[in-house]
Amino acid sequence: MNPKLPYVLLVGAAVIIFILSCMLVSRGRRSPSCESQPHIVEKTGSTSQSLVFADLTPEEMAQVVRYLQGNLGVPLVDASRAKPSDNCIASVDVQVPAKAEVLRFLDGGGARPRREALAVLYFGSQPDPNVTEYVVGPLPTPVYHRDVTVQKYGGKVPYHRRPMLGSEYKQVGAFLEMVAFAAAPTFLKEVFEYDGTNVAFQTTAPHGFQSGDRKSWFIVFQNVSGFFVHPVGLEVLVDHSSLDISRWAVSRVFYNGQYYRDMVQLESAYVQGRISVEKVRKAPQDGDFSSMKPRAPWAAPFPLQYEPQGPRYSVRNNHVLFQAWSFAFGMSVSTGLRLFDVRHKGERIAYEISVQEALSVYGSNCPGGMSTRYMDGSFGIGRYTSPLVRGVDCPYSATYVDTHSLSETLSPSKRKASLCIFEQNLGSPLRRHYSNLQSLYYGGLVNSVLVVRSIATVGNHDYVWDFIFYQNGAIEGKVQATGYMSSSFLHGDGLRYGNRVWEHTLGTIRTHAINYKVDLDVGGVKNSLVAHDMAFEMTRAPWSPEQQIERPRLTKKVLDTEDQAAFRLQSKMPRYIYFAANSKNKWGHQRGYRIQITSFAGDHVPEASSMEKAISWARYQLAVTRRKEEEPTSTSIYNQNDPWTPTVAFANFINNETITNEDLVAWITAGFLHIPHSEDIPNTVTVGNSVGFLLRPYNYYDLDPSIYSHDGVFFTSEQDFTACETNPIACLPKTASCLPNFPLFTYDGFQNM
Question: What's a GO cellular component annotated to this UniProt protein (predicted)?
């Protein structure tokens, strides 16, 4: 044996031990886990006071149901299995107290308002079927109910105006499958290979052409993933106006460009060879082109956001604190996400900011598409708020909040993680300046905002609803649209109404309009509306009179009446329009908050239309009216099914009343025109489909309040900008080098469907 071999082995072993030791030491220096630290949060508003706006708890909902069951004197069927001829509870929601009563409690030391619920009931088992709304209270142990239907709407709500229950959709589906389709077995079998399970139906609305109608076109699709873009060319008009299901009937049938009296006539024409058949290739269960399954394998993780020292905001019950901001939040069954008592630096900026309606108007050369005007509040924007997926719908580390509702059932339902709240670094400065003239310095502020988000999936559409709070006192309301397009079967002159996106699929043109209610209280309840804009004026240069200068100047106008403050959709609106307070800032200007709208709206339905008054809020990009308790919303859930005699007509709110030094409400409409195209397959992206508004301080402060943010950065050429005391950003390798504590991924979106 070579005598040097033991030494070589010893040296080799020593080297290996050294390398392993280095690796262990290196691993021991791994970044520690991020630990939450106490943060400075300005005390603005009371957590317990915000409960005056809180959604009903499941226990309160259950108490209301028990009370109604025991005190109305009529049997109540569970709405999930109710027939049109039954009595049932359609929904139960919180009844927000009157504003004057709430403000006495919040600001004047008055008594806490009674807590009450609003219950919507369908009475189909009566000589005069109708919809009735009851206020039930006080909670948590109700002892009274009060019919408020006539008080709210000026009369009873006829039964035909009721929104369709899920049970009615099921009953229509059963009618189509068991009665209507039974009349055309040969056609369905040979053309669609129909087996009773391979088609899906999509309803249209409104249901007819005049008050009292309840006739709905049901569009037939292949029953596959993303069925909305798999039309087969068949549409059936069902008359389901009778409360007796056995009297429902087919009123008309459409197939591949031709109309038929009923399914019997369609079957006869097919058997006799008098139909032009367009066979659609059978799609696999995953939908093929409509599948949202990624076409590429998972690669490196996408960038993630984390909070090195824990959240810098707090959420307690329905109350949120973030830096100088505080507000209460809630979720209406019909209209979705809403905010109350929004304050900045302790001063109330807005009493209420809420979604009112989401409207879509379709065009097509097929009957279902051309007659569709969806008013999503009728279906329930809050009701269809969906559970959120960590890391996609919201940042992984966001705070997720469960919401509860009672709709079309006798028991409350829980939607886990259906609302999220998070701080987001937008990756750009809120403001900055690099000075290379005279003095040399850099000053900037990271644009970190707080976002409150919910996402509603109403049929084919997914709406991402955001309220965003900026450090300079601005608030943004934003909606992003995604989901699947709704399509028609391509035939004839279909390309007049959209683009072909697949072999037999026409992506149909549609407009989207979103309405918001913004009850600003700027420096107090009483405000005026002021418009500032610009105009060019010609003048002679004082130092050279023979020369002319065109210079912009400021124009000012106080808008005194509601008529002056109603700006039509495509009309020119002053670029600076703001709610003015009765107080002034340090520089002598009226303190104000400016309304700035981001919209790419299509044209509004012509006012000559018989149904236009039901959606008359969409005439206006902005309308400011005097606030009235009897005008709480711009529309009604009953407008969808009877737009010809609308229960609430927003146009009636505008009656030239004075709006100077009054409690005012801004009704804001933002929208976009969507002409679907091939890139909307498999479904629509949010990019470019985002609209909304900003509320921005306008002389409200003496200077930008964000200068007091703890996130500011400033250093000069003479300072050591690598020192933590001078530049906190330089310390990030120390203060932010930690591993985020991401919770395990869970999802409850497929539970209790």
Answer: plasma membrane
Closest CA to 520 of 429, 428, 626: 626
- Residue 450 phi/psi, 5° resolution? -105, 135
Q: What is the pLDDT of residue 43?
A: 52
Query: What is the DSSP-derived secondary structure letter of residue 77?
Result: B
**184-206 tens-digit pLDDT:** 999 999 999 999 999 999 999 99
Q: Give the whole-angstrom CA distance, residue 493 versus residue 363.
A: 12
The DSSP H or E segment spanning 483 is: strand 475-483
Q: How far apart are CA 302 and CA 113, in angstroms?
A: 48
Q: What is the pLDDT of residue 22?
A: 45
Contact in structure between 382 and 363 (CB atoms under 8 Å): no
Question: Which residue(s) pair with 315 in the sheet?
Answer: 320
Angle made by CA atoms 26, 27, 33, in degrees to the nearest 5: 120
Beta bridge partners of 217: 237
Q: At what angle do helices 263-271 and 185-192 cross, to 10 degrees?
A: 70
Q: Report, as ranges of residue numbers, the positions in the chain whose pLDDT lies below 50.
A: 5, 8, 11, 15, 17, 19-29, 40
CA 372 to CA 364: how far, in whole Å? 9
Q: How far, in Å, CA of 486 to CA of 227, rounded?
A: 9
Residues 6 or more apart whose Cβ sits within 8 Å of residue 297: none
Per-residue model confidence (pLDDT) at position 281: 94
Question: How far is the C-alpha of 213 from the C-alpha of 209, rounded, in Å?
Answer: 7
Burial letters 180-202, b for 16+ CB under 10 A, else e: bbebbeebbeebbebeeeebbbb
**Could you tell me what percent of the chain has a pLDDT over 70?**
94
Which pLDDT belongs to residue 24?
41
pTM of the model: 0.94
Domains of the chain with bracketed CATH: 52-155 (3.10.450.40), 166-290 (3.10.450.40), 313-708 (2.70.98.20)
Q: What is the pLDDT of residue 613?
A: 98
